[in-house]
TrEMBL record:
Domain GST C-terminal: 85-201
Subunit: Homodimer.
Species in which this protein is naturally found: Aliiroseovarius halocynthiae
Keywords linked to the UniProt accession: Transferase
Protein name: Glutathione S-transferase family protein
One annotated GO molecular function: glutathione transferase activity
Annotated signal peptide: none
Highest taxon, organism lineage: Bacteria
Family: Belongs to the GST superfamily.
Pfam families registered for this protein in UniProt: GST_N_3
Residues covered by the GST N-terminal domain: 1-80
GO BP: glutathione metabolic process
């Protein structure tokens, strides 16, 4: 099993967190986004969108973080992360979709603009406002569905990977006490520390 990844990709990190929780040890191949490796002909054969992560498992090649997470949980005994009953699974899927469409886009813009030497202050302000609007929704929804033994679900891992980037650029969860408590609980799990990016990566 091989995972094409990037240390600072939140999409990659959520997959690596799940692998850590499942005790899977895929070969990690970091794709250099900085040098444009993700736009190479070889990589585009694996994922025509040119994005990480991409999973290779036997003869299967699968892009898209949420699809990879569902596949891994279903194949490798991760029922506690992705419930088998339809009602709970639907709730997990809903939060995966919500993160993909509502929280992740403004956080990603916020991070890109904040870390760029040519970052646009207006875009940073707008993205920060949109991010906090989304966090207000998440705060009202807490607690979200957890696994049968209190373990995080795929939705938790996805959301936490996004909020970790929000925190990385100096944003605070002050004003969102339920989200902050939930986030702290998952941050305390080994899978969070084991997948944290470092500046030398």
């Amino acid at each position: 099993m091989k995972l094409y990844s990037h240390p600072f990709s939140q999409h990659s990190r959520r997959v690596r967190m799940l692998c850590d929780e499942l005790k899977l040890r895929p070969e990690i191949e970091n794709v250099s986004l900085e040098s444009g490796e993700h736009r190479s002909a070889e990589f585009l054969e694996k994922n025509p969108t040119g994005r990480v992560p991409v999973l290779e498992d036997d003869s299967m090649v699968l892009p898209e973080s949420h699809a990879i997470m569902k596949y891994l949980a279903s194949k490798y005994g991760g029922e506690r992360f992705y419930a088998q009953d339809n009602t709970t699974r639907a709730q997990i899927d809903m939060w995966l979709d919500w993160n993909h469409t509502k929280l992740n886009p403004p956080v990603q813009t916020l991070v890109i603009q904040s870390m760029s030497k040519d970052g646009d202050p207006a875009q940073i302000e707008a993205a920060a406002h949109q991010s906090t609007d989304a966090l207000e929704i998440l705060e009202r929804a807490m607690p979200i569905e957890s696994g049968p033994d209190g373990s995080p679900t795929l939705a938790d891992l996805s959301l936490v990977s996004t909020i970790a980037l929000f925190e990385m650029v100096g944003q605070s969860l002050q004003g969102f006490p339920k989200v902050a408590k939930w986030y702290a609980d998952i941050k305390a799990r080994p899978s969070f520390a084991n997948t944290a990016p470092t500046m030398d990566q």
